[in-house]
Task: inverse folding
């Protein structure tokens, strides 16, 4: 199977699973927000934000390192599974302790604290089954990861529906996260045992020390990235109240849908990029440049289109109680343009053993984000947080590009050549959307997509190399 075909196969499997999962997640999000109101939805979102920040301590980069090393040498599989499972169990106690300390320092109400603790438990179980998913990813068996993702979303949706039907309290919604994580853990272990045996768990300190040392830059990077992702909700909670957290997250949850798209792609391509680093720098450069182009083609129209119809999206999904979230969505959606490229760049640097550089950039971004929130929230509230999110992601971009251009993994002239064509196609699409904005929303989105694709073709944004790649994906060679 060709590299392009293999990557396309894995991306397609994960993409289909992501779409199915996000359909259920969409309704879970919508029903929860409507039932709980901005205040209750803000509490759930706050809990997810806190556990999002501290949940990385259940991993500390071990998942990413496992994928990279096992994709290069399949013989390391059992050693990584047996050791990382034990390391993660110990790290889980650290994680829960940090959450308890943080919640008590901030002095949240008891209901908020209990919700946070329950969702923390779900994150801990998720960290355990991520060990097995790392092996599936390294072996490029994305179908097992896909089934687990779908299972997680379907079960959570059913749990929320049951909670709403019986008019249960918010604490039950939080408990559903724990139950679902346990069930997905059981599935993942079963799937792994079907393909492999479970190695004997053992403490190998000679393996632990260098592994943690090598994984730590990935982990520290994730800490800073998660601070950037979630700190706004935490800061809003004690600077502007949980209702503002609810409005902010109503928009942010929609952005997370699109972030899932880039996650799918990078999950598929990272093992190949790690392998290319050892076998062919030219192949790695080609993969990065083409991916850069495709992510621009994908992210810019999402930002343009969402900005123009954000009012219709918010009213459709959440109802009139979330009208304040419209402006937040219009601002935050532009995060995607930079986030898509920055995520790709971060994975490239991880695949070429430059993870320390990613860590430093992420640290700078986290500091910028916290500083911007401190400055903007008192005056602008959740709108200020939205602005801070965009500016922070923008600050990553030149730092990544400086390193990657110097390492000769992309030609700046290539970007400058394709960007005007992509922008022209987006301009044509935007004019179409503004002119037909009041038609049926599904028809509008579908028609705008067709107009955009035609514009891309006519502007020659898709070249002969892209067509050859498409043929290699469709037909075996």
Result:
């Amino acid at each position: 199977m060709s590299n392009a075909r293999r990557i396309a196969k894995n991306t397609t499997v994960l993409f289909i699973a992501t779409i199915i999962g996000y359909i259920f997640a969409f309704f879970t999000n919508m029903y929860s927000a409507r039932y709980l109101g901005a205040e209750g939805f803000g509490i759930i979102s706050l809990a997810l934000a806190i556990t999002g920040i501290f949940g990385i301590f259940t991993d500390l980069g071990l998942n990413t390192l496992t994928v990279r090393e096992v994709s290069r040498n399949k013989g390391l599989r059992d050693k990584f599974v047996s050791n990382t499972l034990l390391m993660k169990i110990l790290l889980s106690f650290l994680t829960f302790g940090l959450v308890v300390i943080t919640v008590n320092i901030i002095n949240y109400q008891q209901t908020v604290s209990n919700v946070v603790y329950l969702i923390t438990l779900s994150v801990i179980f998720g960290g355990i089954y991520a060990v097995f998913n790392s092996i599936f990813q390294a072996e490029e068996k994305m179908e097992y990861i896909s089934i687990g993702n779908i299972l997680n979303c379907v079960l959570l949706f059913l749990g929320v529906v049951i909670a709403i039907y019986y008019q249960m309290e918010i604490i039950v919604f939080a408990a559903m996260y724990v139950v679902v994580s346990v069930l997905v853990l059981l599935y993942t272990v079963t799937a792994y045992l079907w393909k492999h045996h479970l190695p004997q768990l053992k403490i190998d300190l000679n393996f632990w020390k260098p592994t943690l040392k090598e994984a730590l830059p990935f982990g520290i990077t994730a800490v800073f990235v998660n601070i950037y992702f979630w700190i706004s909700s935490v800061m809003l909670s004690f600077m502007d109240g949980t209702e503002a957290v609810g409005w902010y997250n109503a928009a942010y949850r929609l952005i997370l849908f699109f972030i899932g798209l880039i996650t799918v792609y990078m999950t598929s391509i990272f093992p190949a990029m790690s392998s290319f680093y050892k076998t062919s720098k030219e192949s790695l450069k080609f993969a990065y440049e083409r991916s850069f182009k495709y992510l621009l083609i994908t992210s810019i129209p999402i930002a343009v289109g969402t900005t123009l119809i954000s009012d219709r999206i918010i009213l459709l999904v959440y109802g009139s109680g979330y009208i304040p979230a419209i402006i937040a969505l219009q601002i935050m959606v532009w995060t995607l343009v930079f986030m898509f490229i920055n995520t790709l760049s971060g994975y490239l640097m991880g695949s070429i053993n430059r993870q320390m550089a990613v860590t430093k950039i992420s640290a700078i971004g986290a500091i910028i984000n916290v500083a911007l929130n401190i400055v903007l929230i008192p005056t602008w509230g959740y709108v200020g947080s939205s602005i801070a999110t965009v500016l922070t992601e923008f600050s990553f971009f030149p730092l990544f590009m400086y390193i990657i251009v110097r390492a000769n993994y992309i030609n700046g002239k290539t970007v400058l050549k394709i960007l005007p064509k992509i922008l022209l196609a987006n301009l044509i699409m935007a004019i179409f959307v503004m002119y037909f904005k009041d038609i049926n929303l599904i028809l509008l989105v579908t028609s705008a997509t067709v107009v955009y694709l035609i514009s891309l073709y006519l502007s020659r944004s898709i070249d002969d190399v892209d067509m050859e790649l498409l043929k290699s994906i469709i037909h075996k060679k």
